[in-house]
Amino acid sequence: MAPVEYFLRSERLGFRRWCEQDLSLAMGLWGDPEVMKFIDLRGQLSTDQVKEILYKQIANERELGIQYWPMFLLKGGEHVGCCGLRPYDPQRRIYELGVHIRPKWWRQGLAGEAATAVIDYGFEKLGAAALFAGHNPNNSSSRGLLEKLGFQFTHKEYYPPTGLEHPSYILRRESR
Fold first, then answer.
1. What is the SS3 string spanning the chain?
2. I need a surface site. Which of 51, 114, 138, 171 has the fewest CB within 10 A?
3. In this structure, how many other beta carbons lie within 10 angstroms of the beta carbon of residue 31?
4. Domain spans, the chain
5. Which region, left, alpha or beta, applies to residue 92 given φ > 0 means left and ψ of -120 to 50 means alpha?
6. For the segment 63-100, what is each residue's pLDDT rounded down to a tens digit?
C-alpha cells in the first residue's frame, strides 16, 4: 500500500482531503453523538445526514480549495477527526475555523495542535485577513481552546444547527 500523501502536517498529525470513499471515516466522526452533541441538535445522525456533510466538505474543497480536512496520526495512521476552514466572509478574506475530534483523542492536545497548523495555513497559504470561530455556549473546552489560540471574543451569533447563540471570536492576522 502506498504511503498517504498529506498536504499539511503538524508534529503528530497529517491532513489530507476528504473523498467519497471516506464515508466510514465520516460516520466514525459525524455519526458519533458524542462528537455532535455541541455541533448539531439532531443527535445521532443517519448515514444520509453524514453523507450530506461529507459531500459538502468535498464540494467546498473542489469549489473553494478549503474544507474541514480529515486528520490522522502520523504514527500509526489512525483517524483523529477533522480540522479546517470554510468560508465566513469571503469578500473580507475571513474564513471560519472548525475542529471536530473523535472522543478517543480528547484531552491530548490534538485539537490545539491541529488548529495551530490550520491557522498557519490560513494566514500563510490562503492570505486570510482574519479567522472566525464560534462554539456552543455549553462547550467550555472549545472556549478555552479559542482563547489559548489567541482568538478574541466579539459577539454572540445564532447558529441554526444548535438553535443557540454561540459565543463568536476573531483572530486577526496582525495580532499573531
1. CCCCCCCEECCCEEECCCCHHHHHHHHHHHCCHHHHCCCCCCCCCCHHHHHHHHHHHHHHHHHHCCCEEEEEECCCCCEEEEEEEEEEEHHHCEEEEEEEECHHHCCCCHHHHHHHHHHHHHHHCCCCCEEEEECCCCCHHHHHHHHHCCCEEEEEEEECCCCEEEEEEEEEHHHC
2. 138
3. 20
4. 8-175
5. alpha
6. 999 999 999 999 999 999 999 999 999 999 999 999 99
CATH topology of domain 8-175: Aminopeptidase (3.40.630)
The gap from C-alpha 149 to its chain's centroid, in whole angstroms, comes to 14
**Spatial separation of the C-alpha atoms in residues 28 and 48, rounded to whole Å:** 14
User: What does DSSP say about strands 68-73 and 79-89: parallel, antiparallel, or unpaired?
Assistant: antiparallel
Cα–Cα distance measured from residue 39 to residue 56, given in angstroms and rounded to the nearest whole number: 16
Neighbours of 94 (CB within 10 A): 19
Confidence (pTM): 0.94
Q: Which residue type, as a one-letter code, is found at position 88?
A: Y
Q: How many residues does the chain have?
A: 176
